[in-house]
Design a protein that fits this description.
Elements (H helix, E strand, L loop, with lengths): L1 H102 L1
Length: 104
């Protein structure tokens, strides 16, 4: 009878050791899978961030080009208005000078 008890204890201990080994192996496998999934998510997030930054940069460049174009156009308009004003005053100045020379 005592041999049966010892045999049962050994079987129980062996079953416990196997369960412990299997649990440790399962934990290592789950940890490895979690690390792989985490790395994949990190890589995906980096790629999405790079794409978003590229889109933001392209949009900023478009906006900058539009603003520069508007500024250039505005400068051209101001230049034309200034030139017209100068030409008008120049015509008046020429008329004044000619009048002074002719009329003495």
């Amino acid at each position: 009878m005592s041999a049966d008890v010892f045999s049962e204890i050994r079987e129980t201990e062996e079953t416990a050791r196997k369960a412990k080994t299997e649990a440790a192996a399962l934990a290592r496998k789950l940890l490895a899978n979690a690390e792989e999934e985490g790395k994949a998510l990190l890589t995906k997030a980096e790629q999405e961030a790079e794409a978003e930054v590229a889109n933001m940069l392209a949009e900023a460049e478009k906006t900058g080009a539009r603003i520069a174009s508007e500024a250039a156009s505005s400068t051209e308009n101001k230049r034309a208005v200034t030139r017209a004003g100068v030409e008008k005053r120049l015509d008046k100045a020429v008329d004044y000078i000619v009048g002074r020379v002719v009329n003495g």
